[in-house]
Amino acid sequence: MAEPIRDPKKLQAQVEEFQTLQRQAQVLGMQNQQMQMQIEELNLAQEALKDATGKVYAAIGNLLVETEKSKAKKDLTEKIEVFEVRKKALAKQETQIKEKLESLRKELEKATGQQSK
């Protein structure tokens, strides 16, 4: 187990690192949520496309352009795959940061004489 930190500067540095990690975990959590929302929207678009008849349009920036149904399906599938990969990467980063946070929390508790129950 780690020795209690006696140096106030070192303790302050660890507190600042802890706070930074907390902010990073929060940002990653929000990004993960946004990614999930994007995936859900793409899945809804994919479902709507299954029933589509007639002309199909794809959004390109602020424009809607006519496209083939098969191309739109392929594009949606590819986008979903990309977002799933990004979501996995974010989840992995979030897990790693949470593990660091827990370890640092234990060190800080020991350094300040607090024990978790």
Short summary:
With 117 residues, the protein is mainly α. The chain has one domain (8-111): Helix Hairpins (Orthogonal Bundle), CATH 1.10.287.370. It has 2 helices and 2 strands; from the N terminus they run αββα.
Q: How would you characterize this protein structure?
A:
With 117 residues, the protein is mostly helical. It has one domain: Helix Hairpins (Orthogonal Bundle), CATH 1.10.287.370. 74% of the residues lie in helices and 9% in strands. The protein contains two helices and two strands, in the order αββα. The protein has helices at residues 8-50, 69-111; strands spanning 56-60, 63-67. A two-stranded antiparallel ribbon has the order 1-2. A hairpin with a 2-residue loop joins β1 and β2 (63-67). α1 (8-50) packs antiparallel against α2. The longest helix has 43 residues, at 8-50.
